[in-house]
Amino acid sequence: MGPPDLLSLALLSLCLLVLVVEPHRAYGSSRGSFGLNNGPATPAANGICATSVTIHGYKCKEYEVKTQDGYILNMQRIPEGRDDGSTSTGNKKQPILIQHGVLVDGMAWLLNSPEQNLPMILADKGFDVWIANTRGTRFCRKHVSLDPGQPEFWNWSWDELVSYDLPAAFDFVFSQTGKKIHYIGHSLGTLIGLASFSEGHQADTLKSAAFLSPIAYLSQMSTALGVVAAKAFVGEITTMFGVAEFNPKGQQASIFLKSLCNYPGVDCYDLLSVITGKNCCLNSSTVDLFIKNEPQSTATKNMVHLAQTVRDGVIAKYNYGRPDYNLMHYGEARPPIYNISNIPHDLPIFISYGGQDALSDVQDVQLLLDGLKFHDVDKLMIQYVKDYAHADFIMGINAKDIVYNKVIQFFKNQL
Ligand SMILES: *[C@@H]1O[C@H](CO)[C@@H](O)[C@H](O)[C@H]1NC(C)=O
Ligand SMILES: *[C@@H]1O[C@H](CO)[C@@H](O)[C@H](O)[C@H]1NC(C)=O
Ligand SMILES: *[C@@H]1O[C@H](CO)[C@@H](O)[C@H](O)[C@H]1NC(C)=O
């Protein structure tokens, strides 16, 4: 199968989050609503610290961070390990910023036991851990003048995560700690990191970066997508959702998915492994927690932009779909590209990718590595995990031994 045309990452991600982890509930024939929890979101007073961190005996503090375009983002800080009896160690610890992927929020990192989840492992290893959450997710539905009921609130794509959300998080952590920051991204968190660093946004605040299950080029996903995604058009999504919220738990999304699953020959149950790859190492209790808390809303425009990335095979800014519109926004008929080769060649980079990962396809990772071919050889560390698929990197019960310890070693080498 050649590169797919007009494929939708929207669908992919949705399927990743809905299907992959819960095929039975998500597509069980007797269920009308995909089995997702449609109840009201946990209020911010019961934020991520309270529900997922302090209950395990860790200190945790909630922050609000404002972006330059007025979004108010929520962050969590786990300043030290659970058994770190010492009184405040001041600013001695090395800060790490952790960035989640699309359609989830920072809680996705915290669903496994403290011995298994990345933020707590890092805290126990002596790091000052900061968890970022992007605009539109449960605790980031705030803006200085807009509210989520207005289309304008959702008028953004991952370009804005690159230009506003990530810089806001970096600047804030830097202002609080005075130290250059280690970055860890998963999935879309890798794309916005790579794009942002290629534009030189965090030159003064970034110390090193770890990319787990990297997503940059997406055009080789053909096998992963199989039959269903080929039917999902960018246009179809926009027509249905307009410039507005894309709520994967909402009725429209559910209708949209169901319609795709009704295509002849499409068996959504089997798509589990077709779409994300076979996750080797998930705990079913963790998966249940995941279903309760994720997926989260994003902007339809963000989904469209991701679909464009799949379709066009380049890492570029949002395409307004018409040369004159692009000209108006960018002064060029085509959207400007993010050139991965412009990431500073001496930036220490760790990349871990999985042999079973259908979203971060091995061939696409090769394209990414090709973009990094002029990187200083001793600054680039690459790990290939044969059995891992997309979700194993955030929820794998053995991710500590296989991936996280390597990340920690990599960070500790950057002194
Ligand atoms: C979204 O933002 C663009 C500029 O980036 C503007 O041209 C457009 O009118 C906006 N649309 C809405 C619905 O706010
Ligand atoms: C799976 O999660 C449950 C609930 O947190 C836990 O009791 C169990 O030990 C976990 N299993 C593995 C293999 O980590
Ligand atoms: C990206 O930048 C590199 C040098 O930094 C250059 O050789 C290459 O042509 C650029 N790629 C594109 C597509 O502009």
From TrEMBL:
<dbReference type="InterPro" id="IPR006693">
    <property type="entry name" value="AB_hydrolase_lipase"/>
</dbReference>
<feature type="active site" description="Charge relay system">
    <location>
        <position position="357"/>
    </location>
</feature>
<keyword id="KW-0442">Lipid degradation</keyword>
<keyword id="KW-0732">Signal</keyword>
<dbReference type="GO" id="GO:0016042">
    <property type="term" value="P:lipid catabolic process"/>
</dbReference>
<feature type="active site" description="Charge relay system">
    <location>
        <position position="390"/>
    </location>
</feature>
<feature type="signal peptide">
    <location>
        <begin position="1"/>
        <end position="28"/>
    </location>
</feature>
<feature type="active site" description="Nucleophile">
    <location>
        <position position="187"/>
    </location>
</feature>
<dbReference type="InterPro" id="IPR029058">
    <property type="entry name" value="AB_hydrolase_fold"/>
</dbReference>
<keyword id="KW-0443">Lipid metabolism</keyword>
<keyword id="KW-0378">Hydrolase</keyword>
<comment type="similarity">
    <text>Belongs to the AB hydrolase superfamily. Lipase family.</text>
</comment>
<dbReference type="InterPro" id="IPR025483">
    <property type="entry name" value="Lipase_euk"/>
</dbReference>
<dbReference type="GO" id="GO:0016788">
    <property type="term" value="F:hydrolase activity, acting on ester bonds"/>
</dbReference>
<feature type="domain" description="Partial AB-hydrolase lipase">
    <location>
        <begin position="53"/>
        <end position="112"/>
    </location>
</feature>
<protein>
    <recommendedName>
        <fullName>Lipase</fullName>
    </recommendedName>
</protein>
<dbReference type="Pfam" id="PF04083">
    <property type="entry name" value="Abhydro_lipase"/>
</dbReference>
